[in-house]
Fold:
Amino acid sequence: MDVTRLHPLWLRDNCPCPECRHESGQRLLDTRSIPDDLEIVSVTERTVTFSDGHTSTFDPTWLEANAGPAAPRPRRLWDSTLRVRSAAYDDVAAGGAALRDWLAAVDELGFAILSGCPTEPGTVTRVAELFGFVRETNYGRLFDVKTVVKPTNLAYTGLGLGAHTDNPYRDPTPTLQLLHCIASSAEGGENTLVDAFRVVQDLPRADLELLTGRPVRFRFADADTELETETPVISLDARGDVQAVHYNTRSAQAFRLPEDEIGRYYEAYQRFGRMLEEPRYRIQFKLEPGGLFIVDNLRVLHGRTGYSALGGERHLQGCYADRDGLRSRLAVLSR
Amino acid sequence: MDVTRLHPLWLRDNCPCPECRHESGQRLLDTRSIPDDLEIVSVTERTVTFSDGHTSTFDPTWLEANAGPAAPRPRRLWDSTLRVRSAAYDDVAAGGAALRDWLAAVDELGFAILSGCPTEPGTVTRVAELFGFVRETNYGRLFDVKTVVKPTNLAYTGLGLGAHTDNPYRDPTPTLQLLHCIASSAEGGENTLVDAFRVVQDLPRADLELLTGRPVRFRFADADTELETETPVISLDARGDVQAVHYNTRSAQAFRLPEDEIGRYYEAYQRFGRMLEEPRYRIQFKLEPGGLFIVDNLRVLHGRTGYSALGGERHLQGCYADRDGLRSRLAVLSR
Structure:
């Protein structure tokens, strides 16, 4: 690579010498101190002398990898045809390649499943600690989901739970959720997961514009807590790619829109919400005692089909965590 | 308010009856189950019967407050003319109105200061627990900042630290940072804070477009950790208002831009970075032992002026937390 084709400010800002850059990769040079009119005075192979008197020697491999626009990070979106696999707790808990592969699945697909976990309470936070840090909230470090399913009617499916993301009323929204099955004697009640980023691909463009352009308030309140924040149902990043989905009909508050937009907004909102329930997008599996799943809570929605009329009990524990810890552990295990 | 002027889907979705809405405010009705062609069949004062057979009775005060577009949340931006006030630890730690006012300052101004805290290590997390939950990271629940200032040159100001936000390489970025002074015998070293949302107001529009439209990678790595994420320097929300600023010259990685954009991007980046250092925008105060400040880490940048040549030592402890806990505690205290 011909360094003289690169911008002098960019080169000077990225000088790798120990005076400009700490061995941790942190920049010691304050970019703001670089003169605006900086020029390259001379170049000898990979060594550049600047008009501020500084000399930098660049690694050609680093230049090749870092100059010019970055390729977008490939995304592997999925639908119902995805083959659902679960990893064994004992392998993953031992660390190494099995843990790396399990974390890579979360990073790539937005979820992963474990089987054979201990059924002791508290296991869910220990799994989170395999890669990162529990996000403590007003629900505690972990929360219990206990359901007693009472037989009522043979056709009863009312306990099904539509696909949703958790805690959209938090700022920031927890980026990871873990759910661990301690006991389950109920028939039915299968877990469903859907890759909302995949569904967004099929959403009409006009719907996408409404769902990204109008913030929705989400709220949860009890005696000790009052959480409220607003965010659009679909968020885009600076490149225009989908960055996050917040969909939760339980905590969504009344839409605050001009009267002439309400009808169109509901049309888009209902289309997206119903697509999230379509069998062609979702995967389904039964979490047995000792089973656990983790989801990227800004991408993969979770839900539950209805229980059968036979009744039974279910005891789950959940906790929240964040993506940075997971990706850090994955990167370190991949070194 | 004439309910027949409101959209039937909106009305049905916001039915407040105990079948549709839990006392916690959570919606029990799955919005997706509402028929698209729903109509209002009859209205008697505040009671509406819909074509799905459901009858809802609305509170006129609730309708007035929730129908139609929301007024934008007022923001109180500030510059160097802001009068800096600090609250007394003993008052705030006692809870009640003093705690409420202190939290309201964080919510409104993006920072608050405490004086007279105990100088015991660990105080910083106890202050965070007055309103919320510590965000644990690879740095621990809290981290130590110990500086030994060695006299070198009378004019030495090299230890000044430019205005920055913390940990932009985390996903999600911690939304609150607390810093507590345990000991300080060094002369100088004043803390600086700047309201980056105020600075953005004065930024030329073309600069804003570049700084919101181009993601920057931020990174931190050591033996056990590898954190990297990308976000633009300035993020806008769905309304087009400034939502977050990520500015940190130490962890920003080489900009990945087309060659013909590099010069213009640096022009915008340098203008913004230098504006963040301008005395007209920033406030300055000295954190003495027992002093503590908290900042909204997506809005208010912190920095430090240089130490004098007399030398000395400084020991600070910091921790991260999140805004949802703070706003919840503020809302509950304001009931």
